[in-house]
Amino acid sequence: MIVRISGEDQYRLADDDAGQLNELEHAVVAAVESGNEDGFAPAFAAMLDYVRANGELVGDDELDSSDVILPPADVTFAEAGSEFTGEGLIPD
Amino acid sequence: MAGLTGRMSTVVKAKVSKLLDRAEDPAETLDYSYQKQVEQLQNVKKGIADVVTAKKRLQMQESSLQQSVVKLDTQARQALASGKEDLARTALERKNVAQTELQGLDTQVAELEDQQQKLTDSEQKLRAKIEAFRTKKEVIKAQYSAAEAQVRISEAATGVGEQMADVGLAMQRAVDKTENMRARADAVQELEAAGTFDDITQLGGGEDDIDRQLKELSSQPAVDDELAKMKAELGQGAAAPAAPQIASGESAPASGDGQS
């Protein structure tokens, strides 16, 4: 599966990694939903680090689209919050 | 595909798909879609140029503020040397405000620098993808039947489109940040326009509006510290000044002096 980190790169991960990635993402979403700002940043960083560490960079000359697109690394807690409630990163 | 079902990536992906729909009409001819990609690359370049312009504006303000800091420091010293402590304090208050603004500008310039770098990287990646698309387009055109070529090209176009959408997202974040920064740049400009950092020796007597505002804006403890330090440097210390002081009270112009 191909995972893109917005503003960075696309990474090719084994399909087996999806379970672990899902868990990491749930931790991020849980932090956002419970208003746990202190817990958000490390949880989000852990998810991106997992992708960077376990994925293989997709070459610039490859034209595959991503299966998963994650927000940019500098996304703020407020932005992450509005992802689920309001306009989000890209206005509708 | 064992994809993620989590909400975060799903939401982001849905939004990118929305941008893609906007950016890519499958009915368009292959060459036209390449042409469009090249046009959008130009837009990215324009976006980078805008960030650079915003950065240059802040840098110009920085250098003008730096000059003000040096000038006000000199004037404070001169005022103190000639026993005008009030004037020296005013100069130091203004210097303090200018320094605070400078620190804010420093942070923002660094942030814009970062945005510019990220956008430049994205632009290079996009350019590489568009180039790959151009090559692939020709190869597929030569090797496959029209119908099959259409499918393969459209897959490739989606790949390019996603990169384009991602750059668009980064650009939008950069624009948002630049707009936030404009507020501070405007505030500095207002202070400058109000004569905040002008030659204080041109000041008339009495406290004007600017001075009252500056007293609120500047950090009084910092100003006190600096004033004390400057006094010590000038050998004025806490001890009573050795030089005879001119009696306080300014040589105010006589009232009703022929001005009508």
Keywords, please?
heterodimer; A: 92 residues; alpha+beta; 3 helices; B: 260 residues; mainly alpha; 6 helices; 77% helix; rod-shaped; disordered N terminus; disordered C terminus
**pLDDT < 50 runs, ≥5 residues of chain B:** 1-5, 23-28, 239-260
Order of helical and strand elements of chain A: EEHHEEH
Tally of alpha and pi helices of chain A: 3
Rg over CA atoms of chain A: 13 Å
What does this structure look like?
The complex is a heterodimer of chains A (92) and B (260). With 92 residues, chain A is an alpha+beta fold. Helices cover 48% and strands 13% of the residues of chain A. Chain A has a 4-stranded mixed β-sheet with strand order 3-2-1-4, with helices on one face. In chain A, helix 1 (17-33) packs antiparallel against helix 2 (37-54). Chain A is globular and about 40 Å long. Mean pLDDT of chain A is 85; it is low at 86-92. Chain B is mainly alpha-helical and 260 residues long. Helix content of chain B is 77%, strand content 0%. Chain B contains 6 helices and no strands. Chain B has helices at residues 7-23, 30-81, 85-143, 146-193, 209-217, 220-233. Mean pLDDT of chain B is 76; it is low at 1-5, 23-28 and 239-260. Classes of the chains: A alpha+beta (92), B mainly alpha (260). Chains A and B meet through helix 1, strand 4 and helix 3 of A and helix 1, helix 3 and helix 4 of B.
